[in-house]
Amino acid sequence: MIQYKKARPEDLPAVMEIRLETLRDVFGLSPTGDSPFPAGLVEKTRAYYSGADQTTVLALDGETTVGCGTMCYLEVLPTVDHPSGLRGHLMNVYTKPQYRRQGIARRILELLIEEARERGVTEISLDATEEGRTLYERCGFSPSSECMVLNL
User: Fold this and answer.
1) Residue 32: what are its φ and ψ, rounded to 5°?
2) What average pLDDT does range 77-86 have in this prediction?
């Protein structure tokens, strides 16, 4: 049976391992050999998980981490629609291929949304892969035409 838990500082090795696996899978990077990641990415990721305002949920099958998801919390200038100014950005909802289609990602998502709601978050954004889009839509997310992005 799959167990779910909020990651604590002592879970950082498991969080890092599943995060890097997520990136390899999503970007089609080699799972072996030299690090396929840009310089500094691993160190910056470790530092982020160690000190940022975020919640990561791990899905465990015994001692094996089989899924994860992270909600990053941001505070921005309040608006009429979002008077608290508290926003969430959902990242890296991921399930290992052999565990997919069992409701694991959905449960991770539900736990992260529940915590965000308890913290007063009024809007959650995310970047979806084509594979994940259906799950997000079933959980109430809708495409937005409001956002424009400038990559620097």
Assistant:
1) -130, 175
2) 90
What confidence score (pLDDT) does residue 33 get? 65
12: helix, strand or coil = helix
CB 105 within 8 A of CB 69: yes
DSSP 52: S
Q: Pick the closest to residue 94 from 106, 85, 80, 83 (CA basis).
A: 106
Residues 20-76 have pLDDT tens digits of 999 998 888 877 766 788 889 999 999 999 988 999 999 999 999 999 999 999 999
Q: From CA 24, how far away is CA 140, in angstroms rounded? A: 28
> Distance between CA atoms of 39 and 36, rounded to whole angstroms?
9
Q: Which of 49, 92, 99 is nearest to 69 (CA)?
A: 92
Helix H or strand E segment including 75 = strand 64-75
Residue with token string 């978050």: 121
pTM score > 0.85 for this model? yes
The pLDDT value recorded for residue 142 is: 87
Taking the C-alpha atoms of residue 75 and residue 68, their distance in angstroms, rounded to an integer, is 23
